[in-house]
Automatic annotation (TrEMBL), chain A:
InterPro entries: SoxG, TrmE/GcvT-like. Pfam families: SoxG (PF04268). Signal peptide: none annotated. Coiled coil: none annotated. This is Sarcosine oxidase subunit gamma. It comes from the Bacteria. It comes from Mesorhizobium qingshengii.
TrEMBL record, chain B:
Keywords: Oxidoreductase. The keyword Oxidoreductase applies. The lineage of its organism: Bacteria, Pseudomonadati, Pseudomonadota, Alphaproteobacteria, Hyphomicrobiales. This is Sarcosine oxidase subunit alpha. The keyword Oxidoreductase applies.
Amino acid sequence: MADFSWGSRSPLEHALVAGAHGARGTEAGVSLTEIRDFDLIQVMARRGQAAELAKAAKARFGVAAPNAPKAVQTSDAILIWSGPDQFFVLSKGGKHTMQTLAPALSGPASLSDQSHARALINIAGSKARIMLAKLSSIDLHPEVFPIGSAAATSMDHTSVTLWRGDDRPDGQAVFSLLVFATFAESLWHTMLDAAAEYGVEISHSEELA
Amino acid sequence: MTSSQSHRLASGGLIDRSASLNFRFDGRTFSGFQGDTLASALIANGVKLVGRSFKYHRPRGILTAGSEEPNALVELRTGARREPNTKATTAELYEGLEAASQNRWPSLRHDVMSVNQLFAPIFVAGFYYKTFMWPAKFWEAIYEPAIRRAAGLGRAAGVADPDHYDKAWAHCDVLIAGSGPAGLVAALAAGRSGARVILCEEDFALGGRLLSDGGTIDGVPAAEWLSRTLTELAAMPDVRIMTRTTLFGVYDGGTYGAIERVNDHLPSPPEHQVRQRLWRIVAKRCVVAAGALERPIVFAGNDTPGVMMASAMRTYVARYAAAPAKRIALFTNNEDGWRTVETALGAGLQIAAVIDARPDVSAAYRSLASKGGFPVLHGSVSGVDGGKDGVRKIAVSLAGGARAEVEADGLAVSGGWNPAVGLTSYHRGRPKWRDDIAAFVPDGAPPGMVAAGAANGDFGLGACLSQGFAAGVAAARDAGHSGKAGTAPVADDEAFSLTPLWHVTGKGKAFVDYQHDVTASDIELAQREGFESVEHLKRYTTLGMATDQGKTSNVAGLAIMAAVSGRSIPETGTTIYRPPYVPVAIGAFAGHHRDETFHATRLTPSHHWAMEQGAVFVDTGLWKRAQWYPRAGEKDWLESVTREVKAVRGGVGFCDVSTLGKIDVHGPDAGAFLDRVYINTFSNLAVGKARYGLMLREDGIVYDDGTTSRLAEDHYFLTTTTAKAGLVMQHLEFCRQVLFPELDVQLTSVSDQWAQFSIAGPKTRELLKEIVDPAEDLSNEGFPFMGAREVALRGGIKARLFRISFSGEMAFEISVPARLGDAMARNLMLAGAPFGVTPYGTEALGVMRVEKGHVAGPELSGTTTAADLGLGKMMSAKKDYIGRVMAGREALVAPDRQVVVGIKPTDKARRLRSGAHIIPKGQTPGPGNDQGYVTSVCFSPTSDQWIGLGLVERGRERIGEIVHAHDPLRGEDYDVELCNPVFYDPDGGRQRG
């Protein structure tokens, strides 16, 4: 009997080469970090049950789920608006999976597992905004897109979910991007092209932030 | 050899004399300084002749000092970076710059085509229309090739552009076009008010006319004020100044287009950098402070090298310390032209004479003339004596009728100023005429936009400062910012007294449009021939249709048309203004989207495994799909594909089918919802079962098909074709949100969540037993045909298993979460090794579906009904569904419709090709007896011959009939037999077994 191993392989496994990319010499202006092996559940209110879902979500997460394009940090997850009466639950380590969320939410909501349907990329660095301006029509000015802002938008003709999480300890803004897994390698190359002139630091991480 | 910059002034100018730059023009080496343009460097070296004109190949020099230049167009750079029609007046000088003149052979000084001038009487407006009419067949063979050779300016590089371009978005409260005094104070006012500001300046230096004309602002010299202002602006974090950036268009919703020449001022872009960047700027308000363009006066010989706009001459002298001439004459109809005299005298140049068309000259300038010792002639320039070496003598018609001559090597001309009304007119705006300045000024503007200063027709420095400041304050306030802006800087207004003069009649060609060689007499001819409308005038004479878009010529052309047609200029009107304001490279619009990055691509979960296997990939929409997996020694695709088909039919194979669209349909009303979107019923599907479904469009034509499984009472898993995945998702969302909002249904695309593989062949079950947990019952009873459920795999993971078949074989589809897809492919190879498992690609998949008579894209063509496809029985009579009513229309149920049928050649050795038309045997092919066509073909290893599917009139009633295949595209005619479309295992025993 053959010995089957079921290693998880990120959609960026092939394209992501950790280290420096593009212009060298000064500090990299953009850092790109892929977050691997996350849990992502889409929660969609059933007809007429948005209020019940909001209540159930508040009970489950301790904070209100977003009802506008926002991303909300909970103690162990990020709740990201994904459309009217629906949101994503992004977490790590099996804390919020189909199995664990169903008892709390499956009454007022339908759940869909999207954990493998997306790649997750964090973008930071002094040139993050100017680089993202090449890809996104969203205004990312600190006053227009403050911490907790989110957008369901497109980059390079590819659907993405973009939000701004907490700043890094050094005060740098961090933008997070969920992109459909099958588009991830293509968008990754586009991002590298956009960022190359500023110098890029590439890595991957198992941690959400 | 480096020449000596013979015409460089000893001091002054905004050039860095410590940074000497060598450059080449037409093979000769020259030197200039950092801060020069190619034009100013050529002038500094005494070069007057820089190009040949478009039609008559007349020698031409430099007319302007900006992006409105019609004459001094060169090929810049060499090799793949060679760019024709580059304006020498805006090309920044860099070390090693290489430029060549255009439209001359063998050399600029000796141009054979200048004989065209001798034939000038026939090269009039409408020349092509009149001359190449007859005989008609000569057009393609003789006229067009000859015209093509003679036409055009400059040569394209002819090879791929090696540079990169990108596109970016920017957002602001107040967008400002132009960094002259009006633009700078607008930025200052808006910035101080707290607004986010973007200022675009097409020049590499900020200051606009202040750089050339100086002046006094707030009691200090303009240069000092400029430097103080730029320092203040630079300290504002939300004010962004973009130099080398032209705002070229205005689009809907406050979106503007701008082109930034990021690295055009270098020989080639530094590594990782782009050449140019296209900006889409979203602004709440826009202040157009784009200034005004000085306009020529039309007189005989006005295109002689050395004839130059008066303001441009000031720019070359004051900003670049380059003398376009040593003995200068001025021809003006306004007070502003005289400033050139002041500048020239200040630089120690000689003034030969001022020819002023006005009856009166101000006392100040009269005394300047007497102090300078040059005559003021009241009259007009009626001719220029000179040629490729420049101006020698100027003929003047004096007001009283007498004639005079002036010896000069340069002639400055000022016919007044035209506000730059492009941006304000791009939403079909028509500028209005202002008599006091004899020019068109903006009459309204696109929403949120306002013009200020010279762009608004107010030319004085004081007016520019006060208007620009007020516009900046107002724009910021409208955008929600009303911080303390302070007060506007102040300056005096210069006098601008003008007597309109457009055209001086005289002997010889008098040019209106320099770049397109349109003369005053062409306009008069157009009027005589009935092309009086300005839009007709433009197209008939090509006035204003060159790359400069008539910036120096349009108004003069209109004025001449007005005069000859007896109308006023406002009655004559303007043509429609359209972006872009300056030419923009297509490469900038394409940005990143070229070659292999022309569009985004999608990769299947097993893509990199398939690459390791040496798969050949095919583009399927955005997808890269494994088409076949060649093995060593196989001579062509057919051999590989045939092997793959045989391996599946005789053993087992697998194929990544993750590209199918996959949609989770949730909710208590999921079944009812599917009943309405499919022609067949899904609400009665048992949990754990799959069913084939067909959707129609509203008009009754088939939209898409696929298999949908019920995984739970309130959860269906729907699949679509690869091609329609996105469209079906949109369609279903439309149905859910708009058509059936009363249903409690939730939809999510899970296309990317699952890696899905089809495993097919008689040994499928054996393979699955290796990999599936032994506790799972895979027997025909335990997992019957069309079963669908979750199973455990060895190694502790869960998968979804669907017993469905596209190949006609015993087959399953297995799904695992996408990040396990690569492992799945590897594990299927391991599990199947004892059975000779063979990965197969889309070609083998296609062969097996044709053998099995399954319809796919070529049959779901947007013209076929369910009945055409042989699926009419699926149309439920017990319920309503999308497309039901329209599918019953007479023509859609007519008995003579073209329906799916099998096709095989009567000669077994013959290859079939799709697209061949079917006509009755023995008839001559024609539209009258065309009965359909071949839709899909393949070489069937199972039948050992080519087989196909077709759509043929009454096809199902004609099984066994021999018909004729007519393929005019490939020049083939042969007989084929209509047959059952299910070539393989017609009773379906294999897939159920």
